[in-house]
Each structure stands twice: as C-alpha cells, then as structure tokens.
Write a structure and sequence with these properties.
Elements lengths: L3 E7 L7 E7 H12 L1 E5 L3 H14 L4 E7 L2 E7 L4 E10 L2 E10 L2 E2 L1 H17 L12 E4 L8 E5 L7 E3 L5 E5 L5 E5 L4
Antiparallel strand pairs: 1-2, 3-7, 4-5, 4-10, 5-6, 6-7, 7-8, 9-10, 9-13, 11-12, 12-13
C-alpha cells in the first residue's frame, strides 16, 4: 500500500502548538483497521468461511491475490482493474467466524461493495459441502527467506499486481505482508 498519512496532534501542554508527523500508512492502517473496517460475525467454521470467501471473490472477479495466515485466521488481499481491498477472517469459536474488510476504488471507500461481499460470503457458506476446501492450485508460496526450503508464510497468485521490490537473491522478490512482516516470493518484476 505504501501510503504516507499525515497525522496532526494538538498538545495541550504546548497551548496553541501543533505537532505534525508522517506515519507509515501500513502502521496506521493496522492500528485503525478495527475502527474503520466493516465487520460481520457468521455462525460458520473457518473452513466454510474460507471456501465461501474464495467463491464470492472469484464470482465478483476479485480473486484473493495474497493470503497470509494470522493468529486465529487469515488476511486476504484482493484486487482487479477497478477495486482493491482486504479481508480478515478471525476464528472466534469452532463455529463462529468474524469477517472484517475494506474495499476501495482508488482512494474512495466502497461500502456497498463491502456489504455485497459479506452477503455473498454468508450465502455461499450455506452451500459449502462438508468435503470442500479452499483451492490453492493457482497459488504459489511466500516464504520467510529467499530459499525453497524456508518456512512458508503465505500464498500469492503469480502474475497478480503485488507491491514487491527486488531482493538480493536472483529470482526472488521482497514483499511486505499485510501483517507488516517482510517475506519473499519467487518471481520477477514485469
């Protein structure tokens, strides 16, 4: 995301003074995500919600381009030529999952799209069969270090638009995960 957000704080100690600080967008995004993201809890297991999320996003031409496992759930980033966004899926219990998410068209928040995604996930979760699982066939691994033996920390779709930079190892790119951690994926910048 790489945005810089300007935060203004007025200090009561220094009456009339204002302090301006530039804070990395990812840090502010992470801190404010809970307050700004649309949120909904659904009475389904994480497995059903994950499958339903994939079906919903794919059905809207918004494939999850990056997936990161997080404590008790997953963070998914998705985009197409017009929209981009992210979803957090958090396991509350074995049969209760909370979804929070944001969708943007440029810099403009798309709350109606967020609502449509949540409704789609709920509808699709009702139809998920007991044997269905998230389909990782089109995904490649994201790793802790630029080696194929390094631990896996996520998945990405090759060819998707991702915010990456060159790494010191040929054939590997550096990526900042939704959690803020850096990781590596095999690929090249086109």
């Amino acid at each position: 995301m790489g945005r810089i957000i300007v935060v203004c704080l007025s200090l009561s100690i220094l009456s009339g003074c204002t302090v301006i600080a530039a804070v990395g967008g990812a840090a502010v995004d992470g801190a404010l995500y809970v307050f700004t993201a649309e949120k909904k809890s659904l009475p389904f297991s994480m497995r059903k919600i994950l499958v339903a999320t994939q079906k919903t996003l794919d059905g809207m031409d918004l494939s999850a381009t990056l997936i990161e496992p997080v404590d008790d759930g997953y963070t998914l980033e998705f985009s197409n030529n017009k929209l981009s966004g992210s979803l957090k899926l958090i396991r509350e219990t074995n049969r209760l999952t909370t979804i929070s998410g944001r969708v943007y068209k440029g810099m403009s928040r798309q709350k109606s799209v967020e609502s449509a995604i949540f409704e789609g996930i709920q509808t699709n979760a009702l139809r998920v069969k007991h044997s269905e699982k998230f389909n990782f066939k089109k995904y490649h691994y994201i790793r802790v270090k630029p080696t194929v033996t390094s631990p896996k920390v996520g998945w990405f779709i090759p060819g998707a638009k991702l915010d990456v930079s060159p790494s010191n190892k040929a054939g590997w790119l550096k990526i900042k995960m939704p959690s803020g951690n850096k990781a590596f994926l095999k690929g090249q910048i086109n």
